[in-house]
């Protein structure tokens, strides 16, 4: 998939045409780790990395240069960047820090490197991933090709189905902000023989951070979320935890810094919680959030937005966690504000896009799947009807609209001049004017899609 047309697309085509004339460096990088920087700075690798950054788009960094601007100048930037990397003259720019709200409350710091720095990080990622990916644990699912939340849930179901129905849920406090640089570089050095590449990664880790108020601060620890290389580095750090859990014979599933250990009893769970916490805090020099960590039955644990209750007959079900249901309700309210000032079609279009992405993630739900999806659909449709009522402003305008939509005049009059609020008026005559079928033709239907996948 190429970037958009015009000068950006033309510049990219020129760039990739030159790159294709040379061999692919990633095929040999995993075998010889003494010259990884040469592979990272190879024109083919740099071209692919820039394409990846362009696809992900993203905001500009501290320097203010957008992805399109860098793409338009790529044919001149690439050879200069290649020389700077090989000569050791490349120095990462500052990272722009932004704060985004966390679903459970509070804020999470996100680091936005300059587009050129994201380009370099992606190039390094493409070379390091083939070196480390084959060595990662089969129980690690986050930020890995061919793996994700669905494979993590499937792995968890397998453990629960084997009778390990007590779960040790461990929450790492501010993991990405607390990664120890020296330990991370030491882990990298075990497999990477190219000191130049290690020095480059060290420079990336030490890039200064510019806070929203303009303050420029040094970075002594952590791998700021937001850069393409950070997810791989986090897996390299936590691979040491995976190996320790495997050495102890534990059954676990990890997705990034979110992991559960499965045991047979509550007593065993507390013992595992204590020993795992000691290893994390003393060996990895990270911090366990005791308030958010717990030992509980599987159905009481929130894992990647799901709950996994085990029925009396031993069947493991996949349900939506209570936290996910609350977040979905809040998101529906945010997407359907009562005082919507644009055409209702614009509102429906925004909801439709969100629902498609949401269902793509939660489509594996089996427990009360149809009823939960039906409830969400009904809530969305009623809020949309309430918006339409609110937009009519006066009873006579609502009356005319209802009649135009096929409602009998007497019924429309009684509804329009009822004195009810918009929420109450979203029922009755509004339901006749805008039946469910009207929305099905315009809006993604969660229940329909769930039944299509799981059957009636």
Radius of gyration, taken over Cα atoms and rounded to an integer in Å:
27 Å
**Overall helicity:** 40-55%
Oligomer: single chain
- Report, as a whole number of angstroms, the end-to-end distance: 38 Å
Compute the number of helices: 22
* Largest sheet properties: 4 strands, mixed
Spatial strand order of the main sheet = 2-1-4-5
Assign the structural class, choosing from mainly alpha, mainly beta, alpha/beta, alpha+beta, or little secondary structure: alpha+beta
Gross geometry: globular
Strand proportion: 5-15%
Mean pLDDT: 90
Low-confidence stretches: 1-8
Count of beta strands = 10
How would you describe this protein?
The chain has 456 residues and is of the alpha+beta class. It has 22 helices and ten strands. The strands form three sheets. The chain has a four-stranded mixed β-sheet with strand order 2-1-4-5, with no helix packed on it. A hairpin with a 5-residue loop joins strand 1 (95-101) and strand 2 (107-112). Helix 4 (43-56) packs across helix 6 (74-87) and helix 17 (395-404) packs antiparallel against helix 18 (409-416). The radius of gyration is 27 Å and the shape is globular. The two termini are 38 Å apart. The model is unreliable at 1-8 (pLDDT under 50).
Lay out the secondary structure:
Blueprint: H1 6-19, H2 26-29, H3 36-40, H4 43-56, H5 67-72, H6 74-87, E1 95-101, E2 107-112, H7 115-132, H8 149-161, E3 166-171, H9 175-178, H10 181-189, H11 195-205, E4 209-210, E5 216-217, H12 230-247, E6 251-255, E7 258-263, H13 266-283, E8 294-297, E9 306-307, E10 319-320, H14 322-335, H15 344-362, H16 369-392, H17 395-404, H18 409-416, H19 422-425, H20 429-433, H21 436-440, H22 446-454
Parallel strand pairs: 1-4
Antiparallel strand pairs: 1-2, 3-7, 3-8, 4-5, 6-7, 9-10
């Amino acid at each position: 998939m190429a970037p958009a047309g015009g000068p950006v697309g033309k510049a990219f085509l020129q760039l990739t045409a030159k790159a294709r004339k040379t061999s692919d460096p990633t095929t040999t990088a995993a075998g010889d780790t003494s010259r990884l920087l040469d592979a990272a700075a190879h024109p083919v690798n740099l071209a692919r990395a820039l394409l990846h950054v362009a696809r992900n788009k993203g905001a500009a960094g501290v320097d203010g240069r957008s992805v399109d601007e860098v793409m338009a100048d790529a044919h001149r930037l690439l050879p200069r960047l290649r020389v700077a990397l090989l000569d050791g003259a490349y120095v990462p720019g500052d990272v722009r820090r932004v704060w985004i709200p966390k679903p459970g409350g509070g804020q999470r710091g996100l680091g936005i490197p300059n587009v050129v720095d994201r380009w370099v990080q992606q190039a390094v990622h493409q070379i390091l991933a083939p070196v480390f990916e084959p060595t990662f644990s089969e129980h690690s699912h986050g930020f890995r090709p061919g793996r994700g939340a669905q494979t993590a849930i499937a792995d968890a179901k397998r453990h629960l189905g084997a009778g390990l129905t007590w779960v040790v849920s461990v929450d790492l406090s501010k993991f990405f902000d607390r990664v120890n640089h020296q330990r991370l570089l030491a882990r990298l050095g075990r497999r990477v023989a190219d000191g130049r590449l290690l020095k480059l990664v060290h420079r990336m880790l030490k890039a200064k951070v510019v806070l929203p108020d303009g303050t420029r601060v040094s970075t002594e620890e952590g791998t700021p979320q937001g850069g393409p290389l950070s997810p791989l580095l986090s897996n390299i750090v936590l691979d040491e935890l995976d190996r320790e859990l495997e050495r102890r014979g534990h059954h676990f599933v990890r997705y990034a810094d979110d992991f559960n250990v499965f045991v047979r009893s509550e007593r065993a769970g507390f013992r595992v919680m204590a020993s795992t916490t000691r290893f994390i805090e003393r060996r990895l020099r990270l911090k366990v959030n005791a308030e958010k960590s717990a030992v509980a039955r599987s159905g009481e644990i929130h894992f990647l937005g799901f709950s996994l209750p085990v029925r009396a007959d031993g069947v493991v079900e996949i349900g939506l966690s209570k936290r996910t249901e609350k977040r979905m309700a809040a998101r529906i309210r945010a997407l359907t504000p009562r005082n919507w000032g644009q055409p209702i079609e614009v509102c429906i279009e925004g909801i439709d896009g969100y629902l498609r992405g949401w269902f793509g993630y939660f489509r594996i739900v089996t427990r009360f799947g149809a009823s939960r999806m039906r409830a969400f659909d009904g809530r969305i449709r009623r809020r949309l009807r309430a918006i339409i009522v609110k937009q009519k402003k006066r009873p006579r305008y609502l009356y005319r609209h209802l009649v135009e939509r096929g409602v009998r005049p007497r019924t429309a009059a009684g509804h329009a001049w009822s004195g009810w609020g918009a929420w109450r008026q979203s029922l009755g005559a509004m339901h006749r004017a805008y039946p469910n079928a009207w929305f099905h033709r315009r809006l993604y239907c969660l229940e329909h899609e769930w039944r299509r996948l799981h059957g009636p």
